[in-house]
Amino acid sequence: MQTMTIPRRFRGPPNSGNGGYVCGLLARHIQGGAEVTLRAPPPLETALDVVEPEPGRWELRQAAAVVATGRPVPIALGRLERASFDEAVAAEQRTPIKPHQHLLPMCFVCGPDRAAGDGLRLFAGPLARTAGDGTTVFAVPWTPFPGLAGSDGLVAPEFVWSALDCPSGYTVAYDPRTGEGDGAVILLGRLSVRIDARPKPGERCVVTAWETGREGRRRTAETALFGETGDVLAVGRAVWITVDRDVQLGKA
């Protein structure tokens, strides 16, 4: 049996791991495209068991409780939305969630209170243009810092998953009628990612994200990561769940 521990640095809510980061850690055990479902808030600074109860199905457990499950899946998006680096820089300036409004200011991926070189600081915003079907596409520039490199010198897979996480959350909590957030409190429920290639630290990348649907408490989005030359490095599909604020903070 293997174990893994989520350092406090990689939190999303104050007392649990960032969803994309945790999903990416479990997905390290899965070849090709992977789907990871979060079953409970991933605790910080706690040894968690990584088990394969049957071939191809993985679980992250805290004692007998299942925190997350993962399995291989083929991932192909219905469409692919692109943006140039300059467009993404401009979109970031239009981010609908201002620092003083951010519900999780210490989130590893999108927290405005994280210092550069510590958190990813990905503040996605809407492009000045709409997609072909009239929907809003979000974008954000990402230049990975050296501390994100794995043993092969490329950005480690769990940070690619992280970068595809929060930008999709920004788009599902957006009201295009007002150009602002719609006030929803959300948590990542499932993230599916296919990594074709990983960027180098210092590479000027772009993340795009767009909402694909809503049903009850579920909101879905797709997302993509592009390298400096415009190549598609990774794609993802996210399911977000609207929750009470106390649930988001781990108090209920």
| Helix/sheet category | alpha+beta
Kindly report the CATH topology of the largest domain: Thiol Ester Dehydrase, Chain A
Low-confidence stretches: none
| Largest sheet, strands/sense/barrel | 11 strands, antiparallel
Strand arrangement, major sheet: 1-3-4-5-2-10-13-12-11-7-6
What's the number of helices? 4
The span between the termini is: 30 Å
Global mean pLDDT: 96
CATH class categorisation of the largest domain: Alpha Beta
The helix content, as a percent range, equals 10-25%
CATH superfamily of the largest domain: Hotdog Thioesterase
Describe this structure in words.
This protein is α+β, with helices and mostly antiparallel strands and about 250 residues long. The protein folds into 2 domains: about 1-70, Roll (Thiol Ester Dehydrase, Chain A), CATH 3.10.129.10; about 85-250, Thiol Ester Dehydrase, Chain A (Roll). Helix content is about 15%, strand content about 35%. The chain has an 11-stranded antiparallel beta sheet. Strands 8-9 form a two-stranded antiparallel sheet. A hairpin with a 5-residue loop joins strand 12 and strand 13. Helix 1 (about 20-25) packs antiparallel against helix 3. The two termini are about 30 Å apart. The relative contact order is 0.18.
